[in-house]
Amino acid sequence: MNLSELLIELLLMPLVAFVIGLGMVLMMRKIAARLGRRIGPPLLQPIYDIIKLYGKRTQISHGLIHEIGIIMAVGGYVAAETLLPVPGMNGLADKGGVITLAYVMMIPSLGMALGVGQCANPNGSIGISRALTAMLAYDIPFILVIFGAAYVYGTTNLADIIAIQQQQGVSGWGLMQMPLLALAGMLALPAVMGKQPFEIYIAPAEIATGPMVEMSGKFMGGLFVMQCFQLYTAGVLYTTLFLGGGAYWITFLPKIYAVVAIPMAAAMLFPRYRTEDVIRLMWKWPVLVGLMGLAVAMK
Amino acid sequence: MSKDLNIWLDDLLGDIENIQFKRKSSRRVRVDVGSEALPALLELLQGRASYVHLSAISCVDWIEDEEFELVYHVWSYETRSLVSAHTRIPREPGVYLSIYDLYQPAAFFERDIHEMFGVFFEGSPDMEKFILTEWDGPPPMRKEFDSEAFVNQHFEWEQYHPQWLKDLEEEGGGVTTRPEDIRL
Amino acid sequence: MSKLDNIPVRHQPTEAAGRKRTNPLAHVFDELVKFCQSRSMFMLHYCTGCGAIELPPAMTSRFDMERLGIQPMVTPRQADILLITGYVSIKTLKRIILTYEQMQSPKYVIGICSCTVNGGMYWQSYATAKVLKDYLPVDVYIAGCMPRPEAVISGMRELMSDIKSGRAQNWKRYYENYDHYLGNQQKLFGEDWQTPTDIIAEARHYGLMTDRTLGEHTALLEKHQRPLEALEMRLSAREKQKT
Amino acid sequence: MRPENYQARSQPPSNEFELNFGPNHPGIEGNYAFRVKLNGDQVLEARADAGYLHRGFEKLMEGRLWIQNIALVPRICVPDPVPMEVCYSLAIEEIGGLEVPERAKWIRVMQLEMSRLAAHLFAFGGHAATTGMYTTMFWGVADRDLILDRFEELTGGRVYSIYNIPGGVRRDVPEGFLDRLSSLLDYLESRLPDYDNLFFTNQVFVKRARGVGAMTQEQALKWGVTGPNLRATGLEFDVRRDDPYLVYDQLDFEIPTESGGDALARNLVRRAELKQSIRILRQVIERLPSIEGPIRCPIPNPLAWNVPAGEAYTRVESSKGELAYYVVSTGGDKPYRVHVRGPSSMHAVQVLEKLALGARLEDIAQIMFSLDACPPEVDR
Hints:
The complex is a heterotetramer of chains A (299), B (184), C (243) and D (380). Chain B has helices at residues 2-14, 38-49, 106-117, 147-154, 163-170, and strands at 19-25, 28-33, 53-62, 67-76, 81-90, 95-97, 120-122.
């Protein structure tokens, strides 16, 4: 692969991720609306929101760290997108691998913590401390699932993982090979995406939307963009590990949307857990299922 | 039941002096009592007659008599009747005893009356401003406070005088409604 | 109370002063932003009065405001629309002004219910402010006691079309006529009324300073200037009085 | 205020901090505020701050005619306005010695129960939203809207009906109204299992709400708790049955109780009351056509009506608890004094302050919404 092709891919991959992520945000809001017997927002609503937020006249910044925090939050995901292979584009997937990805996916939360800390709003601080605790909760099953999958496939290279699965057709998918690990991943997925019942860190009725409380204008817009990436990353990673990745966009897109839609639909049927219940739940069931899956995989 | 209640209350209240007792209906009893005897009456009602629920304390400003009337409505879950104990205190200086030790809900009502009428209750746990924290005029519920005059003095209204109103006024003003059109 | 008679009610859109738009695409961008602003309105989740009871029906399944891109937001920082749902008591009005000044421009105020127009049925009440537009620039009034959800949504659509065509510029009036609004506020809250937001500096920043921004009332700001204090919190009053 | 004056306050290092909870906060019902002192997540002290909705109702009513006040009273409690009108009318009827026709009494009961249904749907929808379950809120508010449609048909007003006047009600029941009401009740009853599955038996919700804001029966009696909140502590008491007004003594209904005294129990009591209200409404639908007669007794010209001197204390059971009016007349055309005892004046102030102590930050909103506190009743 020559340098110019790589550069184009690096540019294109986050862009594609953003567009698909917008669709996921729309889908999330539509699902919430349909379950609530509503019609829901129009087709382009997510992009309207983002353009509007960037077009605000007043942009209140709380200082350099505040801005850097948002850049880290978005940038962390942009970096993650280049590590995630999609049909036709591998980006840095060959070089990085799933371990780098797992590290990179923690950067946004830390960036948010930095930015929110600068705002000095107690609601934000409480929210971000809850968010980091929730990250601690879901990271154990998340890492467990990733390592289990890497062990089974014998590689941490995501492009190779896709190739291995596709050689054997549907029966070669991770879902068939290691159903327990796939189940553990599915259980942890709502927490990775930050949806009910694991979203107490943004509970509006308690801490006025927590970390977002002082975010406005382009900072809020940045968080909206981050949400697109967040949903996309979770969907694509799960698809890559367990659903055979994508050879063609036409099979890849339904898979990632379905992966995101399942936790979304469940989320609207549950209230929030308390923080300690999140940890208890996350360290109990997904970890237990994941460990069993690991044991089965190792024999 | 109501007759028993009457006799029973008569017995109970017999040993308090300066008390008038009137049964309004089977579940409503009015008691007029001197201000010095009211706490004792309430203590009796609560301790010996199971009137444990203080429904409300109402204050009425009888400006012509220079008096505040305090009405304590207490309810018994057992006899299912409500006793309204009326007492009067002089308007000046407007100080009375708190019954917080007997009935905890009194704290809210006493705070409210203090705020709205300026009656101070000795022994009440909290006499701070609550609703009118940003009001520095006289206690507004006193009869001498004229809300309308205050508003006219402090606020201005939108000058609303459209053409159709002017036309109406030229014609002699007022909207005429035929008697058969008046509906309640 | 100073009068607003000599000031036009709606401004023609003025070019941002001090900045020349040379980019030929700037106009296109402006139009795009305006369109998106009209299609994505975040309203502040603040029930100031009884009209708020008709907002849940307007937001939920029956009338579904999200169809129009309107959704509630929690903090003033993120909101575009301040809905004044009904009468404003003086205590609430202070909070409303604080909230309004913290919102990010462009921002819009919608006065719902008759009480925001002229005091409504509480005209003789000592505790409510009567004419909302004396204290804040109001973009749209929705009259009624209380307006039905359809009326609320229709008022929102009115505001949407105003934003799209660029007529809804009332937020600029707050900067341009700050002295007038501050004067009315001071009349109600006392001379030493101050808010933590520096409106004058913001007006200078946006190039919205006029000769009506500064005046006798803003001079009082300097006079009564005092350091920012935390809101007084007397939690232990109860224990203190007891002892 | 100039930016150069923004100064960070120096505070001694401490785990404790203060937080303003409201008035502009989605965890607050209406326009109300709390100041809480927290240690980490735990509330050390809480103090209610009311008055944001103060309009001086009691003062305003002294300046208006008896009949004009009918338009004023429903505004005191916005989600559940009908008991206000009825209670005020009952007081005037008691002072003036008016004999309300039988038919009017039944129509009033019908209205009261419709209002209770609407208020309860709103209340637990709101509670669900504080715990992050917006679907229940969407459903609850939408179903409440169907009841408002029936109100509109009956009275002409969606929220504030201004339909009860001293001496009876303003209009007779429209033709076919009872059939439509009946089919609405069928619909609501068919929805109840859905609500059960979605919300009341949802394990996440049960886990969240159990033990939150719990009080014992002794505490509840001591603090002046009334209504569903009192019944959630196990005391079977209802003003409708134990201090009957209108025709509640002729109706057959149960008083649901729970023993927990916590947020969950309070919601379950409301859930059970929905069923009882539907049951009462069905009885009304059955009996109303057979009760002939006028819908109001003749009253003098209301614009020049001098209600005879006297005083009355009337109580009704609103959806929040015991609602009472103390009305004094000196024989004039205006009331001399009206005192409103809103149920939330206890629940939203003292009870909430006490229950919040030791609770956690995430539970304050739940406690407030489970008590169904209505701030305008406090502020008046």
